[in-house]
Specification:
Helix content: 55-70%
Radius of gyration: 18 Å
Order of helices and strands: EHHHHHHHHHHEEHH
Strand order of the largest sheet: 1-3-2
Largest sheet: 3 strands, mixed
Distance between the termini: 32 Å
Strand content: under 5%
Low-confidence stretches: 272-277
Number of strands: 3
Shape: globular
Length: 277
């Protein structure tokens, strides 16, 4: 998107309201449902919450309003995690729940989630699979768990464990519908090569625009002065750059001036007022 173009999002209010409904904000979970389904549905709730945060950024909603929804959502997610006996989708849920806190809550809650989440060693008496598992339900489990481990131990200050998890990520295969940041971006972030990180972040935003223009349901029309876009139909787990945004916000917390984008990572998300120095 060129600097001379104005971003038009005609469906934004509707999309934001739908995401809020699907995230089930303010709705207590049912223990019976949790015992039956585990975190399979809760994982999708976290996806919808991330989609809601993205649209609130695009709307220019204040940090306080966003956090007032996200904090109790994350608390509910942690409670469901404690009550759930099943490991299925736990790494995916952990990673997305952490990003809900990173993108929409505060540093204290980020630390609480990091303490609670598991790494590639597993949890609840089980270990993650790389691929396969019974009926292929565990596809990408270890990939998600290693990402959890890298972020968990980085946030908590254990550099040795963080490096072990970081190196494991790139040996694993992922679920095609669950995509964290690519290796080039994650490596620059992990090594704190901030110049490379910012450059790669911008490259990835440009790639997302190229992909969006190929789909008529995303970029509806474009002229030299404006771009009309809908976020309707975006599957957050693999179609929006939630992981890029999480890494960028963590970098911003360290004083890095990161790249933004009017659609993918609007400047309204920065400076990261939720993480004061």
């Amino acid at each position: 998107m060129h600097s001379t173009q104005r971003l038009i999002l005609p469906d934004l209010d509707w999309e934001a309201d739908l995401a809020a409904q699907l995230a089930e904000f303010g709705t207590p979970f049912e223990l019976r449902t949790l015992q039956k389904m585990g975190l399979r549905w809760s994982f999708h709730l976290a996806e919808f919450c991330l989609g809601w945060i993205w649209r609130q950024w695009l709307k220019g909603t204040s940090d306080e309003v966003i956090a007032n929804q996200v904090r109790p959502f994350v608390e509910r997610g942690l409670q469901m995690r404690r009550e759930c006996r099943d490991y299925e989708k736990l790494p995916h849920h952990d990673l997305l729940l952490l990003h809900c806190a990173l993108l929409g809550s505060d540093a204290q809650q980020v630390g609480i989630v990091a303490e609670a989440m598991a790494d590639s060693a597993g949890d609840k008496g089980q270990k993650p699979f790389d691929v396969g598992g019974l009926y292929a339900v565990a596809v990408g489990e270890q990939y998600a768990a290693a990402w959890c481990g890298m972020l968990k131990h980085t946030i908590l200050g254990n550099e040795t464990k963080a490096r072990e998890e970081y190196e494991l990520i790139w040996k694993l295969r992922r679920d095609l519908e669950f995509t964290a940041a690519p290796k080039a971006l994650a490596t620059a972030w992990f090594k704190k090569d901030w110049k490379a990180f910012v450059n790669q972040l911008q490259k990835d935003f440009d790639k997302l625009w190229i992909r969006a223009r190929k789909h008529a349901w995303s970029v509806k029309s474009e002229s030299p002065t404006e771009v009309v876009v809908t976020t309707r139909g975006y599957r957050i787990g693999h179609m929006w750059c939630w992981s890029h945004c999480g890494l960028a916000l963590l970098a911003s917390r360290q004083g890095v001036v990161v790249a933004t984008d009017p659609l993918w990572f609007p400047s309204h998300a920065l400076p990261n007022r939720l993480f004061p120095t």
